[in-house]
Design goal:
Number of domains of chain A: 2
Number of strands of chain A: 10
Helix content of chain A: 40-55%
Strand content of chain A: 5-15%
Order of helices and strands of chain A: EEHEHEHEHHHEHHEEHHHEEH
CATH topology of the largest domain in chain A: Rossmann fold
Low-confidence stretches of chain A: none
Shape of chain A: globular
Largest sheet of chain A: 6 strands, mixed
CATH class of the largest domain in chain A: Alpha Beta
Number of helices of chain A: 12
Strand order of the largest sheet of chain A: 5-4-3-6-8-7
CATH superfamily of the largest domain in chain A: HUPs
Largest interface: A-B, 26 and 26 residues
Radius of gyration of chain A: 20 Å
Oligomer: homodimer
Distance between the termini of chain A: 64 Å
Amino acid sequence: MMKCKKCGIKASVNMRHHKMALCKEHYLEWIPEQTERFIKKYEMFKREEKILVAVSGGKDSLSLWDILIRLGYQADGVYLGLGIDGGVEYSHESQKLTEQFAQQRNLKLHIVDVEKEYGQSIPMLAEKTHRGYGKPCSVCGLAKRHEMNRIARDLGYDVLATGHNLDDEAAVLFGNTLSWEGTYLQRQSPVLAESNGLARKVKPLCRFYERDMAAYAMLSGIEYIYEECPFSVGSTSIYYKEMLNQLENQRPGAKLTFYLRFLEAKNSGLFAQPIAVEFATHLCQKCGQPTSAPDLCSFCRMIEKVSLEN
Amino acid sequence: MMKCKKCGIKASVNMRHHKMALCKEHYLEWIPEQTERFIKKYEMFKREEKILVAVSGGKDSLSLWDILIRLGYQADGVYLGLGIDGGVEYSHESQKLTEQFAQQRNLKLHIVDVEKEYGQSIPMLAEKTHRGYGKPCSVCGLAKRHEMNRIARDLGYDVLATGHNLDDEAAVLFGNTLSWEGTYLQRQSPVLAESNGLARKVKPLCRFYERDMAAYAMLSGIEYIYEECPFSVGSTSIYYKEMLNQLENQRPGAKLTFYLRFLEAKNSGLFAQPIAVEFATHLCQKCGQPTSAPDLCSFCRMIEKVSLEN
């Protein structure tokens, strides 16, 4: 029988990568403690700052919100209605679970519906723009970034927090490394500083394995949407996650080492300072967000194009 | 039927990663042409320089020697007798094939036997030093580097050429990337400049897939040792090669892209200049090779230690 490292009773979660097992009670203490440690270590935010958590209804973002509240931070949520409805009514179900989570805990939740706001759901935008070869993932990413930035700014939040876990971050890093995307490698970080009027972005869960977050959500009784987005099937990031899981199986801890050593190497100056390309010297004439284009940002250009065609 | 891109007859080799198939005749022209291109592109050596090829009896190093001779370079060979004899009498067989190759082509081959030179074979050194946890790979690498450097210097060669192919280089890069080994990442290159009296080191085959080199050796009738070193079974580098092969199967060309984009990124300044750590400020008191230790280099220290214990 695997025993809890802290109290010796039967363990609920065994983390091979940390060579540590914990019982339910101590696990539910340990995860927030660790999160607090990462928040401080990477200087993500201070207690007096207003945090906006991007919640999707999945285990990671709901757990993140739960943890930040437990830790006593001022964290509101924002849910983006994407209008994605596979066989499971994905968007509908995830919104319902997010609302229920907020109500039960008496938390403030902002809801933005992309279709109501712009007349087009994500699948509609994807189809009309032919971006992403039939998969709306690139349109969805663009819309999410744009809307999250907009809401954080309009509502005066200091920080935008997302639920990306280690598996997410390691997969992104793996992809950027396989193609040696210098700019992305130089930028990938648990914290992106505020710039050009966009809120600071932070990833407080970036050092937790996906399965550890699933255990946290389950043990703390959070009801979340189990299904992955129906469009994610066969995506490159899932393929990279599988490869990293192979490595992890072979050598427990490999995924964490890969990510942490990258952060350390970056910190100790492995990469040259990025050449100061002026990515975003203009402000979008429609939404006011920074952009490299002289008139409209990519999102507003997309919306305008689709609207004109209708 | 797959047709040769150059002449339209039935192709012998299909390279999915290059979207190109070639017949035997044109393949045996293409590989040396490409090698010449890489030699020039990476400024490996000039026609008047004296090249020493490190030959093991395997397909890569014998093919490299064959190609350099075809291209008209002055290339002699050096074979290092390691005393590794698994079920196939590995070292014995590979030496025989190397000697036969040189004799048939009337080439100059230097043979150095580690046991005759130092009283110990590689497996004996590995056992006595307890390096490498039962696998002599680290001892073998140390001995090879030391001896190749010594022979190139003593016999006045300008350049030491090794048969590392793309699969080898990509696997090393993959390992260094997974652990973000800054110094190794900054150093990995098709050419290592001469320094401290050590000959320049070059890898003219670094852009060829392993299977393309196997095809070259086979089609040009080179007899080489098929067996891998018996100690390589289960090595990390073989594991990395398998992972990269998975990626390659999914996306033909991925392995080459990974390696080439790395070289490009490095060239365009992705990495900061390595901090000028003075790795090798001393010369070994026994062999005269550069070392970071104040008295003996790692190899001479190992030999001395083992000799004292006898």
